[in-house]
Amino acid sequence: MNAIKEIPIEARRTIFFQLYHSLFPSVAAYIAKRGGNFEQAKDIFQDALIIYHEKTNLRSLVIERDEAYIFGICKHLWSKYSKDNRSFTGLTNLDMEEKDEKSQLSEKKLLGLLLASGKKCMDLLKSFYYDKLSMEQIAETFGFSGTRSATVQKFKCLEKIRNTVKEKSLSYESFLE
User: Of 3.90.1570, 1.25.40, 1.10.260, 1.10.10, which CATH number belongs to 100-175?
Assistant: First the structure.
């Protein structure tokens, strides 16, 4: 893919399409890892292709590794872009912190409901849902007479939580705030 100046226009177009298909996904991934989005990646990549075209065609520069050269241009352009727009990048991080706080509040609400059902229920539900124990194992661990008793007890624990939710008029959205 070297020496574009000697290549006819149609062949040059094919080379650019090949470069786009082979290189753009890695450039987009690079930019996404550094806080950019798809549109920014497209803009950076297209600017890099223009710079590449100018360097190889207009200045008759011969480049041995086209893809590495273009990727290097993209890295440089993204670095420059992100330095110029630091305040925007910082806001994205603040949004993530706010979401984390909201998620922690939701987890606390849910944990509060589970605790209201009692320690034994909490342990039983944890064993079933978190530890992935079978009903036979739960029956043994908690001293139930059989799997049927363990199943009934699990159902009663879930009913306690459902009733608490109904009493407090909570909905699914209450946990997503």
Answer: 1.10.10
